[in-house]
Amino acid sequence: MFNWLDNLMTLLVENGFHLSRETHVGESVHFFFYDTVKILILLSVMIFLISYLRTFFQPQKTKALLEKIHGPKAHVAASLMGIITPFCSCSSVPIFIGFIEAGIPLGVTFSFLVTSPIVNEAAFAVLWAAFGWKVAFTYAGMGVVIGVVSGMIIGRFKPEGHLEEEVFNGEGFNKTKPDMTQKERLAYAGEHVREIIKKVWIYLLVGIAIGAAIHGWAPEEILAKYAGSDNPLSVVIAVLCGVPLYANALGTIPIAEALIGKGVGLGTALAFMMAVTALSVPEMVLLRKVMKPRLIAIFVATASIGILIVGWMFNLLF
């Protein structure tokens, strides 16, 4: 799909910077410019399409829909809605609170909370750009499965008594906007593209820069030996390393792409990315405002097990 861009960036590196792609520096520079342009193109397209779709799923309508669904279907619906709702935990938590205020079962709300930061239009676009559509769709599907299963397991613990009182004292939703015209929907989608890229471009460039350094300089033999797909412990280590960090999926995917190019297992790299986006310490601090420690521990343990299983499965399948 992007052969034209690869050739164009090769010309830029060789004729503009007078560097050979056979060198570490030349290959790193090519990786940086090629990935930056490729990711921005797909990111803009996917954000626009999903943002347009999102105009039909305003918070109040989403809440009303979930109130009508019960049982496992409710978990599936909540998890799927997590894909098209705001793509960072700081935006997801207020909606999570709104679901609780509406009386939606807590297990169902956790299906939303787990899926929302892991699977979103931005991560999907970058995954497609980096690894192809099969990996992107498989990742999205497994992210939904993690959300559904985690929500159902957490619901078994009857966790309602482990919420802080502040949860019930505010407004988790903004007021429903009036129905939008076609022109307004398109304008919203375009504005959302600008807002998200403005918010994440620094994470994106830092991630690509780190990925470029890894791509050009990291010792391939060592990474393949200790973090290859045949080492099950590499997935565990990846999750443990991801938890203390703070970044969104956009910043971690280019790093994962570079690591995979050096022989790291696909599942290992994706487990690292999922741990950073769903289980980071900053997100736990945010959740502490609405949950008691025991509930946070249950959430972390359940999601961690799901991420580990997905990491091992990816290493076996790809």
From TrEMBL:
It is a multi-pass membrane protein. Its main location: membrane. The keyword Transmembrane helix applies. It is found in: Cell membrane. The keyword Repeat does not apply. It comes from the Bacteria. The chain crosses the membrane at residues 31-53, 136-157, 200-218, 230-247, 259-281, 293-314. Keywords: Cell membrane, Membrane, Transmembrane, Transmembrane helix. GO terms for cellular component: plasma membrane. Belongs to the UPF0718 family. This is Two-component membrane permease complex subunit SMU_747c.
